[in-house]
Amino acid sequence: MKKILCLALMIFSGLAVKAQYGSINAILDKLEERRGINQNLKDVNIDNAKFVLIKDFEDHTERSFLVIKDSLATYVEMFDDKKTGESASNVFSGDIVRTQHNIISLRADKLEGEKIILPITKTFLMTKQKKYLYLLDVNTKERWVEESALNQK
After folding, report:
1. Contact between residue 17 and residue 11 where contact means Cβ atoms under 8 Å apart
2. Cα diameter, the chain
3. Which long-range contacts (CB under 8 A, 24 or more apart) does 58-67 make?
4. 0.85 cut: is pTM over it?
5. Which of 36, 79, 104, 120 could form a disulfide with 108 if both were Cys (CB 3.0 to 4.6 A apart)?
């Protein structure tokens, strides 16, 4: 009798653990999807997409733009000095590679049309939240937003 009761208790415990594991796994999948890690964005077209990053400092503002056309990319850095009101910009061009797992790699090897020795490279994780695309810089964790999201607000 003790053996049957013990066996029934073990089976019941095993089923309870399996049920908890399934619900925990579903919660983790949902959290990963919200953070953009577990999204399937293979079908999202990024041709002619424009992304913006704005950083505000005490003495200056940095605005960065990324324009993607097919496999080519234009990366623009703009610096606005708050004291003098002067602006400076750098226009880089290069190519872009998109993998199956929402990873986008930028290699900008030309500065205003002239080859540079050390190209600028950036790696992004593409995510989508509330119908807007974001590029999360893998190295710096900076979040580039699609330009249409800024125009809507």
Report:
1. no
2. 89
3. 58/82, 59/83, 64/144, 65/147, 66/106, 66/135, 66/144
4. no
5. 120
